[in-house]
Structure of Polysaccharide deacetylase:
Amino acid sequence: MTKSAFVFRVLCSLNIFFIIIAVFPFYIPPVNVSAATGPAPVITDSSPPPSFSPDRPEQNSAVYLLPAMATDGADTDKPVYDPYTVTERKEKKLPAALPDVKPYYGVKTVYLTFDDGPDRYNTPLVLDILKKNGIKATFFVVGTQVEKSAPLLKRIYNEGHAIGNHSYNHIYRQLYRSPAAYMEQLRHNDQIIKRILGVRPRIARAPGGTVGSFTKQYWTLLKEEGYTDISWNVSSGDASRAKAADLVQNVIYQMQNKYLWSHAIVLMHDGPGHGETVKALPSIIKYFKDNGFEFKVVNLKTPPAW
Ligand SMILES: [Zn+2]
């Protein structure tokens, strides 16, 4: 480095230093976390990964782990997870097919589902609300979000909620390039989830829904690899810029359709930017509680949405 270049660098660093000193007194920390914008900070996880082997998965009595042969026994109300990935099942010649379980149609049953998380801001608030209400829900998580918030995925799992696969990156043009590309994203996300939890989901939800994106080949591959796709039949409408009160009304309006009462699957989002969903959630839960609904997690007993 020449002498003049060195002097220039020193002057530049001093400038940055003075700018920081000058600006700092005016910095006001954000007070409303749900209204915060911009990329969420990465939550660092200092705990070691679980020392996992499929024969000794992490203990969590709130969930049901599919046995290696997985031919029956999944008739449970708990969330269902698999200690084996698709590849491990193939290598060990274990069945990939899901056990045949009779769908459960209740008198009044609701499945609250949250897509696109986990998110640094919204997911902890959603989990707090669920805990306060003593109910469980289902989270369809995106791999790139999981990578940023591994401890939140653990919290969802440890608190007895169901986790579903919502692709690795949620980018439609990559995801729906081909059936193989879609399956590759599911497997990739599974690997990330399994590294954190020691188990992986068997339920998945196609970003944007399957209509218009899936061809017959997608359904064939999903079945071959043993995933079950979970759609929804009630939309909170929170993919738009609607306010919390509108989200509550959207749900109540659609619930006038009594066909849905036996298995209402409600679509919401806990991903980045969904503060209005967090605000609406207590009222949505209250509506279902006041009307005597039971809250269930999505598992192999959950009927098809339509
Ligand atoms: Zn989504």
In short: Confidence is low (pLDDT under 50) at residues 16-38, 51-56.
